[in-house]
Structures are given as C-alpha cells and as structure tokens.
Amino acid sequence: MTAPQRTGSEPVPRHVTDEDGVRLPRLRLKGVVVRGAAQGIAAVALLSVAMLFVTDHHDRETFLSVAAGLSAVSAGVGIVIGAFFWAVCSGDIRRWRDWRTVTGQTEGVTIMAPALVRTGVLALVLSPGALGLHHLVDNAAYNTWLYGS
C-alpha cells in the first residue's frame, strides 16, 4: 500500500499553542498520574532485571529493601510537594518542552508541579514492587537463581 503524499506548499501543521506559546491542552492530573503509574510499572520490571546482577543473597535483599525505602520517601516528597505546586499554579500547568515560555522567577513551578507528581507516582508504584521482590527473594529456595549465591 502507498500512503498519500503531500504535494504542494501547504505548511506542516504545528501544535496548537496559546498566546504565550504554551502547548494546548494543558496537562491534567489524571494524565500525569496514569503516565507516572505506567512508568512505575516499567521501573519495577527494570528493578527485577537489575536485582539479578547482585549475586549474593544478602546483598540482593539489602539492595531491594533500600530501593523500596528510598522510593517510599521519594513518593511522599514528590507527591506532597508536587500537589502543593499544582494547587498553587491554579491551572497553569506546563510541559517540560514549554520551558522556553517561562518569563518570571516563579513560573518554573508550573513545570515542576507535573514533574514532581509524575515522579512521586512512579516511586509510589516502585516501592511496593521492590518490597514484593524483596519478599520473593527472601522466600526463595536455597541454591536457586532467585535466591542468589
């Protein structure tokens, strides 16, 4: 099959922006949370592969418990500060690619709010995943690939 080709000097459609050059539609909390959760699931999959490179059983358990603890703290900080920034922005939420539209000293918060919320949700999904992997490794039978050496 062949795809239709452009034949003419028609301009390529650009993204819709407002008068300040910020992309529309603005980010919504639901979309940011869903994307953060999906990235958190991918992070758990990456952590499950990374734990296999830690060969000693005790070191593997320590690695997973530290990952769970750090991600729990990151989740709390990211979600609380991000939600506060989101509330302060009063609907003026921007993407990272809208960084060039920031004109004042306080407008950076409009970009950091969704970044912190997404990172917090990612860590919120990663923490119980890492804790579950820790329990899985802890309950693994001796001399199995999951137990380690």
TrEMBL record:
Keywords: Membrane, Transmembrane, Transmembrane helix. The chain crosses the membrane at residues 32-54, 66-89. It holds the Pfam family DUF6336. It comes from the Bacteria. This is DUF6336 family protein. It comes from Streptomyces xantholiticus.
